[in-house]
Automatic annotation (TrEMBL):
Domain HipA-like C-terminal: 180-379
Gene3D superfamilies listed in its UniProt record: 1.10.1070.20
UniProt superkingdom: Bacteria
Organism: Acidocella aquatica
Lineage: Bacteria, Pseudomonadati, Pseudomonadota, Alphaproteobacteria, Acetobacterales
InterPro entries: HipA-like_C, HipA_N1, HipA_Ser/Thr_kinase
Protein name, entry field: Serine/threonine-protein kinase HipA
Amino acid sequence: MWQISKEGRIDQIVVYAHLAHGPVPMGLLSFEGSRKTRQSRFRYAKSWLGRKDKFAIDPVNLTLKTGSFNGLPYEVPLPFYDSAPDGWGKSIMQAAFPSQPFGMGEFLAAGGEERTGELSFGPTPDSGPQRWLPDERPLLALPSEQDTLQELFRAAEAVEAGQANTHHLQRLFRNSADQGGGRPKANLVHDGLLHMVKFPAAGDRFDDPKVEATCLSLAEAAGIETPVHFTQQVGNRTVLLVRRFDRRGNGMRLGYTSAGTLLAADPTQFYAAFTYMDLARRAQLSGIQPCGHALFRRMLFNCFIHNTDDHLRNHGFIRDDGKWRLSPIFDLSVHQPNRLVLAPAKGISPEANPAIAFQAHPHFGISRDEAKHIYEEIVIGVGKLPKLLDQYDVTERDRETLAKLWVYALNPPALSRNADI
C-alpha cells in the first residue's frame, strides 16, 4: 500500500527501471513536510547499485552513487520532472480529483504507465509499478484499441469547454494524465504501437495538427531525425498521431531526459538564458553522443519554419542500448514571436533568421563550407513546402496566415560572403 500522510499526501515512492525481463526497483523518492510544495530526497537502492546492468537515471543530475540527492531548490530532483505530467496532464488530474492536494509526489504516483521515458513508480519494492488513485477507485485501464479517436477527441473538447463529466475525465485520465505540454493530447495504441495523439485546441489560429504534420515532414526532408507521424480526420476536424520514440516496437522503454534537465534549468520556466551551443557543449561533457552538427541543423531549421517555441523542454535525449543520444525532433509548429528561445551562441542574435543563425557555425566547430552544405540541404528540404501543404490539405486561409511567418521557408535568404564572425 502507498504510504500516505494524514494530509493525504504521498510520503514515499519506489522508483522502478524497466529491464528486458521486467521492472526492477532502483531507488526511493521520499517527501517531508506538510506544505503544498515539499522537500524530497532520492537514494539509489543498494540492490540496484550492486547490479551489473545498473545505469543512472540521467547522465548529470542523478549519477550512480551511494548517499541521497536533495531535490532543492525544486520539489524533486530535476530528472523526475521529465517523468511527470505537465500542463494538460496536470489539468486532467486536478479536474478529476478536485479535492486532492497535488504536488510532484502525487503527480508522479498518479501518472500512467505510458509516461515519457523508462521509469515507473510504485508503493513498495515488492509491489511492482502501480498507479495511485486519490479516491481509491478501481485502477483504470491503460490505452487500448477500444479507446477511439472520436471518443478521446470528444472528451478533450469537453474538458477545454469546461463541460467535462465523469465519463470524459475517466477516459482522459487513463489516456492523457501522463502527458506533458499545454495542448490537449492523449496516448493511443495504433496498429500495435504506442502513439501520441495531438488534438486541435480552442483559439488555434490555424489547423495546428495539419501544420505540425507539415513541419515534421519538412524536418525529415531537411535531414533531421523525425518520428513517424500522420494525420487522421475525426468528423470535420484533424488530429495528428506521432509514434512514441521512447518506445521500441516490442514495447521496450527507452530512457529520456530533457535539455532543461541536462542544463539544470528551472523546470517551471520556459525562458532560457542558454544557447544551442550551451546545449551541445553540455551534452558532449556529459558523455552523450556528439550532437553539435545535429543541433546546428535543427537551429537553422527552426528559423526557416519560424518555430520559436524551441524552449529547453522541447529538446531531449534518449538512452538507447545503454548510450545517450539526441532524440528525434518533436513539438514543431509555427509561432508568432520573432526570437528563438535559445539563442544560437553567445554573441549571436536570437532573431529567427537562418542567415543570422548561420553565423554561429564556428562555435559548433563547423567549418563554413560544411555549414553552408547543411544550410543548402535545409533549403532543398523546405523547398518541398508547397507539395506538403497540398499533401496535408492545408486550407488557403491557413496558407495566407502562415505565409506571413514562413517568409524564410518560402524565400530562403542567400548567405553573405562575409557570413562568418
